[in-house]
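A quick word before the example. In earlier lectures we treated sequence and structure as two separate objects. From today on, think of them as two lines of the same record. Here is pyridoxal kinase written that way.
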Amino acid sequence: MPEKQKRVAAIHDISCVGRCSLTVALPIISAAGFDTSILPTAVLSTHTGGFENFTYRDLTDDITPIADHWESLKLEFDALYSGFLGSFDQIDLVADLFDTFKGDNTITLVDPVMADNGELYSVYSQEMAQGMTKLCAKADIIVPNLTEAAFLLDEPYVGNDYNQAYIENLLVSLAQLGAKKVVLTGVAFDDTQLGAAVFDSTTNTIDYAFNQRVNDHFHGTGDIFGSTLLAGLLSNFNLKNAAQIAVDYTRECILKTVELNQEKRYGVAFERAIPYLIKRLGL
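And the structure line, produced from the sequence above:
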């Protein structure tokens, strides 16, 4: 009997310009061979980093009708993947969607996209940051960066002033929100390498995935990382190896962007690195 194609529901915003969210998640997960359904949480003319006067349309009222129609079709998903949410009300709506569509073998991955460099994104509030803990509690895996971790735990953001013990305590605290597995992004212990810390509470193991740092800031790399991590897991790599693939592919995307000398606020040239990803996934 032929293998069934796995289906993913990606719940993120659409930034019409600036490669991030659904315009990254959809092509990456699809290129990995998975049937990718989308549920847009908001539509923006551009992403919010490096642009002014962007338009913003909240799609909260569309989420339940879309989910109800999916339920009427008896759709089943192998993964539910949420990212940027457009309003506080969407937290409960996406949590309900998880309850509806999560099967025994469904992976629920929450990327609590809301902050970076110590600050919340302009369309987020402190209330929404705290509410995000409810959605994280329903996830199998959460993928925060260091800023988002601080907001989720209501702790001060420490910037670059941390050591390995701090990171490992942070991982354990994040897992206590409810997700059994945590992948913390943007972790570095020196100036030469950057990557992620990985905690699996079911085995009580902590691992690290690093690659050589590229010294600059690039928009959309968190979404590339999360989407690639999920693609790796659905391709039957374990969490540690999927995280390493995600770190390595994200770096390849950055290198392609540097090579092309493209303006960084428009995101990274992930399209040019997709052949690398396909090779790493063994396709």
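Notice the following. Residues 7-280 form a domain with the UDP-N-acetylmuramoyl-L-alanine:D-glutamate ligase fold (CATH 3.40.1190.20). We will return to this example when we discuss secondary structure assignment.
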